[in-house]
Design brief:
With about 150 residues, the protein is of the alpha+beta class. It contains two helices and eight strands, in the order ββββββββαα. It has a seven-stranded mixed β-barrel. A hairpin with a 3-residue loop joins strand 2 and strand 3. The longest helix is centred in the C-terminal third of the chain and has 23 residues.
């Protein structure tokens, strides 16, 4: 996995992999400057990303996040990383090759193990959740289930 931070169409993301048609990565979001205090955000799937030489900070009333903070060495002086920046390790973003991408910095080498662990854990959680649900029949509603249960 690459350590670069890319800016594509005003979205920041951690590049993950590349093929002939597109690149994939994990999004860096501020959630309207509310970080993981925003309703509906799953803090256990996130980690802080912050610029060197800054320090990671949770917002007031922000719950504990699922992964340790990672440091970003910003290579472009005009680029700033908001204090509320969070990496959503459970979400995969596709950026097609016809989209212009601007690399703004790199994750510190010492922190790449954090990124790798977070990505792998979120993937394993997703696969396990899908496998647990695959053994149970799905019904559009309770009526369909009752109709099936009455069959001989």
């Amino acid at each position: 996995m690459t350590r670069d931070i890319a800016l594509a169409c005003k979205y920041r993301f951690l590049p993950q992999s590349s093929d002939k048609l597109a690149d994939t990565g994990r999004p860096i979001l501020t959630y309207e400057r509310r970080a993981c205090t925003k309703k509906g955000v799953k803090p256990n799937k996130h980690g802080i990303v912050y610029s060197i030489p800054g320090r990671p900070q949770l917002l007031k009333d922000e719950p504990r996040l699922g992964f340790a903070a990672v440091r970003l060495q910003v290579d472009i002086q005009t680029e700033k990383l908001a204090m509320e920046s969070r990496v959503n390790y459970s979400k995969l973003v596709t950026v097609e090759h016809n989209v212009k991408v601007f690399f703004i910095g790199r994750i510190a080498q010492d922190d790449m193990a954090i990124v790798d662990t977070a990505v792998n854990q979120c993937w394993a959680d997703k696969v396990r959740k899908e496998n647990e649900g695959s053994h149970q029949p799905r019904y559009k509603n309770q009526h369909d289930q009752r109709r099936r249960d009455r069959r001989p």
